[in-house]
Amino acid sequence: MKAIQMVDLKGQYLHIKAEVDRSIQEVLDTTSFINGAIVKEFASNLASYLGVKHVIPCANGTDALQIAMMALDLQAGDEVITTPFTFIATAEVIALLKLKPVFVDVDPDTFNLNADQLEKVITSKTKAIVPVHLFGQCADMEKVIKIASKYGVYVIEDNAQAIGAEFTFSNGAKQKAGTIGHIGCTSFFPSKNLGGYGDGGAIFTNDDVLAEKISIIVNHGMKRRYYHDVIGVNSRLDSIQAAILNIKLKHLDSYILRRQKVASFYNDAFKNCQYLDIPLTAPFTNHVYHQYTLKTRNLDRDGLHQYLLKKNIPNAIYYPVSLHLQKAFGDYGFKKGDFPVSEMLCEVVISLPMHTELDEEQLNFICRNILDFIALNS
């Protein structure tokens, strides 16, 4: 059996090597390394895939979130609502811009923002909501949009983990994750479902005015070269990354199908295990499985984590500490017990290898060892 990887980027690359190598060589031949034609081509192709009017590439997913908030002209002290059970970038940029992060707990089954709690924390200072489509499925965007519209609040989707996922509204209409709110943001970090071979990100919107503002902000506040209309940033997707992503975009749907098959294998293996809760998918979304995350029940999660590592089975804990309890947010007055679901999840979740190159032998080995651990420790 070949070694198991948490994410097998090399194996995936070998399947598309000829396409990727050719696209990189074309960039090298043109020497258009910054803002080359391939960047615009990729942006156009991604917009078509998502069904959104504008895609503005940028340097990474964190920049995408920051630029989105800058484009909305949020002011110091304005409140932005998000979830504490996510990667720090979501809330980090809120604090960085001197805005106030306000957290809402998550649903214990989907791990996404609990929209039923939103209205309890909205105040006159609330200016934006940032739902996170965590691990590969959509947050309840219909409820989020309804509440945001009621209070005149912006919605910025953090779609770093769910590109290609689809939300189904109660009337049957469908939209891709990241295209429902005022602005959507994503990351092309290599381990993402659509990942480059370096950093990268993008911002989506159907609003022409916002698209123009975002395009200016990402390029030092310039619309016309050397004429700076606003204070901006330097955040560009380089041409080599765009070339790679343009190739991988063609394969994204097949990658999603492969991830879903892996998830089905795991689900079948663990569905009758009383010590594990398999991931649940909300009825209004599909799941593209950026991560396959189990909840342990009456089981030593950390012991399982170490046991698997000793068996050369990579695994991860996303996330070990809820954001409201992180030292970086210590000045905001949060305390243990404020968001009990997020705190509980930090104690019980464990993520298994999830990528397009996992084979049946590897999957059997992973599942057998997990069940062996349970048999020995239950």
- Mean pLDDT equals 97
- Examine the secondary-structure arrangement and name the CATH architecture of the largest domain: 3-Layer(aba) Sandwich
Report the end-to-end length measured between terminal Cα atoms. 29 Å
The percentage helix is 25-40%
Tell me the Rg in angstroms. Answer: 21 Å
Structural class: alpha/beta
Determine and state the CATH class of the largest domain: Alpha Beta
Strand content: 5-15%
Provide a count of the helices.
12
CATH superfamily of the largest domain: Type I PLP-dependent aspartate aminotransferase-like (Major domain)
* Strand adjacency order, main sheet: 1-9-8-5-4-2-3
Order of helices and strands: HHHEHEHEHEHEEEEEHEEHEEHHEH
The major sheet is characterized as: 7 strands, mixed
Overall 3D shape: globular
Overall number of strands: 14
Description:
The chain has about 375 residues and is an alpha/beta fold. The protein has two domains: about 10-105 and about 115-245, Type I PLP-dependent aspartate aminotransferase-like (Major domain) (Aspartate Aminotransferase, domain 2, 3-Layer(aba) Sandwich), CATH 3.40.640; about 255-375, Aspartate Aminotransferase, domain 1, CATH 3.90.1150. It is about 40% helix and about 15% strand. It is built from twelve helices and 14 strands. The protein has helices spanning about 10-15, 15-30, 35-50, 60-70, 90-95, 120, 140-150, 210-215, 240-270, 300-310, 340-350, 360-375; strands spanning about 55-60, 80, 100-105, 125-130, 155-160, 165-170, 175, 185, 200-205, 220-225, 225-230, 275, 290-295, 350. Strands 1-9-8-5-4-2-3 form a seven-stranded mixed sheet, with helices on both faces. A three-stranded antiparallel sheet has the order 12-13-14. A two-stranded antiparallel ribbon has the order 6-7. A hairpin with a 2-residue loop joins strand 10 and strand 11 (about 225-230). Helix 2 packs antiparallel against helix 9 (about 240-270) and helix 4 packs across helix 5 (about 90-95). It is globular, with a radius of gyration of 21 Å. The model has no long low-confidence stretch (mean pLDDT about 95).
